Each structure stands twice: as structure tokens, then as C-alpha cells.
TrEMBL record:
Entry keyword annotation includes Ion transport: no
Zinc found in the keyword field: no
UniProt membrane topology term: Multi-pass membrane protein
Major subcellular site: mitochondrion
Domain Bacterial surface antigen (D15): 278-598
Name of the protein this chain belongs to: Mitochondrial protein
Start and end residues of each stretch annotated as Disordered: 83-105
One GO BP annotation of this record: protein insertion into mitochondrial outer membrane
Lineage, broadest ranks: Eukaryota, Fungi, Dikarya, Basidiomycota, Agaricomycotina
Subcellular localization, as worded in the UniProt entry: Mitochondrion outer membrane
Database matches in InterPro entries: Bac_surfAg_D15, D15-like
Assigned keywords, A-Z: Membrane, Transmembrane, Transmembrane beta strand
Gene3D superfamilies: membrane protein fhac: a member of the omp85/tpsb transporter family
């Protein structure tokens, strides 16, 4: 059978060698020392009916077979060491006739043995070449042809059967999950919510569609994807080209409890998280979180999140929260916040959109004995009712030492909806960006450029005074504009920072490996930071306020070390403020920063 034939299934041919030494009883002569010596040979029949061949004076012992090494087999199979077998007559070896009556049985035995080994090696080497042909020629060609033919075979995936059926997931929700993969998309459904590729028409496309299905189910976080089982069967009662997918889904445990520590934003703390998955059978998640820390004295939150349209790309969340934060390090007070949020999130190809409504009550209390007059005047409760939209696009391949991608984040908030206090009425815009690249192609030195801009425009009458303290922006600290204390930029009243309505910050950082320790997560770090915080002057125009914001910025430089402890980053820097203002709180010298977001 031709191993390259395309009308046969792919096979691996195993070549076996079975060589039997069985000389026949014939007479002949051999040339020994230039004379013809007759070789009398007689045939003896054994009891079993077989024949033994022996010489008249001495029997010939069986030859010792020495098989070739494995390396020679593969060299031959790969065509690196071709072996040409010796010519063969197809008949057993028989010594030539010799007329000399003087015979040497030892030489005759040696001749028999040498010829036997030569013939045996020839047959074995022929078998080696056969194995080489099977491995190097027949197998790839036939297999690739067969696989290609099967992959392009017309097939239709017409149904998906669950075996076993998940216990807690609603049948209607499961039907919404799986139907896009076996039926055309609904015209009323937005295209970005359709997870399935075009309707498959052959085996190759069905396998790609199955891969998309598994990835789609994994996004919900309620199934154990390591235990998913998939097989295909002919459609019962269907056409020959119809197949059915049998899907075995194993649900994760519904209850989840975790306790841990958290470090970031210049503080540390502990937290406990409890979660119930698939609460109502439609991938809903009920989660509760409680934490305490060095600055956030206590924080509690309960949230319920559910996917919309049976898609992980569209979700709705309701949450209630309570927060007690200690701001005495820079503003001599503690801020207590209680409220609720409703958020609609959509993950689109061009970024993530979050539309949020928030109703929150703020209280300023626990003033320190040395609190300034300004802080005491601003220590009044307030309520904010607002709606905001956030667009985030993050395409970075690395948070800090990336070679491609960028981060863009825009938040716009309108406060002043029914329920807001008289001065909790404003429009606020926040822009954040970050870009990192290698210094040149293949370089291990990276630079990062980050920016943050906040603008708050008061919408309440000017005679009411300034904005509430919780609505203002603060800059400065090891995670912000380095070289200043936390909240150290901008207006101050004694020991307290008063923050501002308009602010910007810009940072350039350079990271380089330690010489001869390029693989270490510890990197050398150098930076230049700049920024400014000002209040919005209602007596001036918008253009004058922007000019004031960007004129004469604060500036600092420094060097240090950066350690990557995924997912956080730790910095130890020596900072030097270069340009500042009288009264601002600088922080010259060594400083430690811990967190995820840095300028």
C-alpha cells in the first residue's frame, strides 16, 4: 500500500524484522589458500521433522547478532546517514567448490559467520530506510492531508445539550447564554453584545466557535472552567452534516470568604470579603466588604451586581457604603461618608463606560485641638446628589515599564440633583493619562509620562462662599507630586491644607535595571514632577483662572529605587523641591511610596 496515498486514513507503519538463519542442505566448494576444497555436507532430520545443517567434521555455531545503535536508526530515518545495503543474490551463502582435500573447518565457520552477519545487516538497514520513509514522508503528508480534509468538511452545529444541567443556574439564563452560538444574532441586540463568531460551516469554524464559547462562559465567573467537558455527537434524527455539542458545566462554590491585608495610597490595613455567587441563578453576585486601616479607620460596603442581556459586557450594580477616613495628617479632621450608588457599566471595543448615580451624606468631625479657623468654618455636614460618566481605555502591556499602549481616563460629574445641599452644586472634570515606552527598541531602560488634571466649576451663587471641603482636590505626597507632603500643595491655613478647585500634575519617570542584575524586580528610578493647586476665583473669567493654574508651577526632582511586588509598587526616593510657594508643606529627603497608582 502506498503510504503517500490520499485515499487512506493516516497511519503509523511499524516495521518488524524477523530473520531466521536456515541454510539448506546443498554441497559446494570453497577456495582456501588458493585451492578448491570440497565441503561434504549432510542432512540430519530431527524428531520434530525439521532439518539441521552441519559440516562433516564440526558444526557451525549460531552467529552473534549485533543490532545497530538507536542513533543510526534516527540518522537513517531523517536522511542524514543513508546506507546502501550490499548486493544480495537472494540465495543462502554457499562456499565455492575446492579441489584441495585439505579443509580448514575453523576458516569455513568464520566465512559462514561473516557472510551471515553481512546479509543480516543489509536486511536490517533496508528496514531502517523503510522506517525513515514512513516517518519523514508518509506520516506528515498523509496526516496533514487528512486533517486538512476533515477541518474543511462541511458541518453544522445545530444544538447544544447540557449534561448534566447546572443546578442553580436558571434555564432561561442558560438559553440566553448559548443561543448566540447556534442561531443567527437578533437584529435588536447590539453587535458588541454578540459573543459568537459568524455561523460555523465546517469543523474548523466549529472548533473556533467552541473556543469563543468557553471564553465567554469564563467571563461570568460562576463556572469552574478547568472541569468543563465538551464532546460532539451526530444530531439525533438530523441530517448527516448536523452535529450536537454536549457540554458539561461545573459550577463554582456559591460561597466565598476571604480575609487579607491591603497596602496602597500611602496606608495599610486589613479587610474581610464575603461573596455569594449566582445568587438568583443569573450570574448575580452579592458581596460584602469590611476593612480597617491606618487612614481609613473603617469602611463597609454591600453590593449586588447582575449582568444585563446575559452578557458579561453589560452589568448593573447597586451598593451601599459607609466610610470613616482620617485626614488629620494634612487637614485636622475626619470625614465620615454614608451613601448609595447605582452604576451601569458597559465594556465596549473602544473602552469601558460607567454611568453612575450617587447620593452621599458627608460629615466633617473629630477636629484636632490645633485645627485652623478655616477647617472649623468648613466643618459642616452636606449632601451631594450627582450623576457621573467615566470612560476608561487602558491598552498598556505593563503598568510602569510598558513598551506599547496607554491609559486614558475621563470623568465628568454633575452635582446638584434633587437632594443636594446648597453648595453641593458644580460640574467637575477629571482627566488621567499615562504612557510608558522603552528608551529605544530593545532597551531595558523605560520612561513613563503621567498626568492628572481636575477642574471644578461652582454652579451655586457666589455669595454663598466656597465649595465644600470633601469636593476639593489635594496634591502632594510620595504617590502624587513627590517632594511635598500629603496634601502639601496649594492654599494653607496654619497646619491645614485647604485644597483647591483646579489642579494639575505632570510626572516623568525613568526606570533602569541595576547593572549586572537586570533580572531583579528592583530598578533604579529617577523623576521630575510638576503641578499646582488653586481655588476657582468667581470674580475672574474662566480663561484667567486657567492662566493662573498653569503659571509658575511647583517643580521637584529626585532619584531612588523602585521595587515591583505585583500588583503593587514600592518606591524609596530622595526628593528635592526646586520651585514652591511660601507656606506650602515640602518634604525634602527620603520618602517611601506604596500603591498601584503613581504620578
Amino acid at each position: 500500500m502506498d503510504p503517500n496515498a490520499e485515499d487512506r486514513p493516516p497511519t503509523i507503519e511499524v516495521v518488524e524484522i524477523d530473520v531466521e538463519a536456515k541454510p539448506q542442505p546443498v554441497s559446494g566448494t570453497a577456495v582456501i589458500d588458493g585451492q578448491n576444497v570440497p565441503l561434504p555436507i549432510r542432512e540430519e532430520e530431527t524428531a520434530g521433522g525439521s532439518h539441521n545443517v552441519s559440516t562433516e567434521n564440526q558444526s557451525i555455531p549460531p552467529p552473534v547478532f549485533q543490532p545497530p545503535m538507536a542513533s543510526s536508526i534516527f540518522r537513517t530515518a531523517l536522511g542524514q546517514d543513508p546506507i546502501t545495503p550490499p548486493p544480495s543474490t537472494g540465495k543462502p551463502f554457499l562456499p565455492n567448490e575446492h579441489n584441495d582435500s585439505n579443509d580448514d573447518p575453523e576458516k569455513i565457520r568464520q566465512l559462514h559467520e561473516e557472510e551471515f552477519q553481512r546479509r543480516l545487516r543489509g536486511e536490517y538497514e533496508q528496514a531502517q530506510r523503510r522506517v525513515g520513509e514512513v516517518v519523514s514522508s508518509s506520516f506528515p503528508a498523509s496526516m496533514l492531508a487528512c486533517v486538512s480534509e476533515n477541518m474543511n468538511r462541511p458541518l453544522r452545529l445545530t444544538s447544544i445539550r447540557l449534561s448534566p444541567v447546572p443546578k442553580t443556574t436558571r434555564p432561561g439564563f442558560l438559553n440566553s447564554l448559548l443561543s448566540p452560538f447556534i442561531s443567527p444574532p437578533s437584529p435588536s441586540r447590539p453587535s458588541f453584545l454578540n459573543p459568537a463568531p459568524p455561523t460555523p460551516t465546517n469543523l474548523h469554524e466549529i472548533l473556533l466557535s467552541t473556543k469563543s464559547l468557553v471564553a465567554y462562559l469564563n467571563e461570568f465567573g460562576i463556572y469552574d472552567m478547568d472541569r468543563v467537558g465538551i464532546r460532539f455527537e451526530p444530531k439525533r434524527g438530523g441530517d448527516p452534516d448536523e452535529i450536537e455539542m454536549v457540554l458539561a458545566l461545573r459550577e463554582k462554590g456559591r460561597l466565598f470568604l476571604k480575609a487579607g491585608t491591603e497596602v496602597g495610597g500611602g496606608e495599610g490595613g486589613g479587610n474581610v470579603t464575603a461573596r455569594i455567587r449566582n445568587l438568583l441563578g443569573g450570574a448575580e453576585t452579592l458581596e460584602g466588604n469590611a476593612s480597617i486601616g491606618t487612614k481609613t479607620k473603617s469602611a463597609y460596603q454591600v453590593s449586588l451586581t447582575t449582568p444585563l442581556s446575559a452578557s458579561p459586557l453589560l452589568s448593573f450594580a447597586l451598593s451601599g457604603f459607609s466610610l470613616d477616613r482620617d485626614n488629620s495628617a494634612f487637614a485636622s479632621h475626619r470625614e465620615r461618608t454614608q451613601g448609595a450608588r447605582a452604576k451601569l457599566s458597559a465594556i465596549l471595543p473602544w473602552g469601558t463606560h460607567d454611568l453612575q448615580y450617587e447620593l452621599v451624606n458627608r460629615a466633617i468631625d473629630h477636629l484636632t485641638p490645633d485645627a485652623s479657623v478655616s477647617i472649623r468654618e468648613l466643618a459642616i455636614p452636606s449632601t451631594k446628589s450627582s450623576i457621573s460618566h467615566t470612560w476608561t481605555s487602558d491598552t498598556r502591556d505593563d503598568l510602569w515599564t510598558g513598551t506599547k499602549g496607554r491609559l486614558l481616563k475621563f470623568t465628568h460629574e454633575y452635582a446638584g440633583l434633587p437632594g443636594s445641599s446648597e453648595k453641593a452644586k458644580f460640574f467637575k472634570s477629571t482627566t488621567m493619562s499615562q504612557l510608558s515606552r522603552a528608551l529605544y527598541s530593545g532597551s531595558q531602560i523605560h520612561y513613563s509620562i503621567s498626568s492628572l488634571t481636575t477642574m471644578l466649576f461652582p454652579l451655586f451663587p457666589s455669595h454663598l462662599g466656597s465649595t465644600y471641603l470633601p469636593d476639593r482636590t489635594y496634591l502632594g505626597g510620595p504617590n502624587s507630586v513627590r517632594g511635598w507632603a500629603v496634601g502639601g500643595l496649594g492654599r494653607r491655613d496654619g497646619p491645614d491644607s485647604l485644597g483647591g478647585d483646579l489642579s494639575w500634575a505632570l510626572g516623568l519617570s525613568v526606570f533602569a535595571p541595576i547593572p549586572k542584575k537586570e533580572h531583579w524586580p528592583l530598578k533604579l528610578h529617577g523623576f521630575i514632577n510638576g503641578g499646582k493647586v488653586v481655588a476657582y476665583d468667581r470674580a475672574r473669567s474662566f480663561a484667567d483662572n486657567v492662566t493662573k493654574l498653569y503659571r509658575s508651577p511647583n517643580l521637584s526632582v529626585g532619584v531612588g529605587l523602585m521595587y515591583r511586588l505585583e500588583p503593587i509598587r514600592i518606591e524609596l526616593n530622595f526628593s528635592m523641591p526646586l520651585i514652591g510657594r511660601k507656606g506650602e508643606r515640602t518634604s525634602r529627603g527620603l520618602g517611601v511610596g506604596v500603591g498601584i497608582e503613581f504620578l
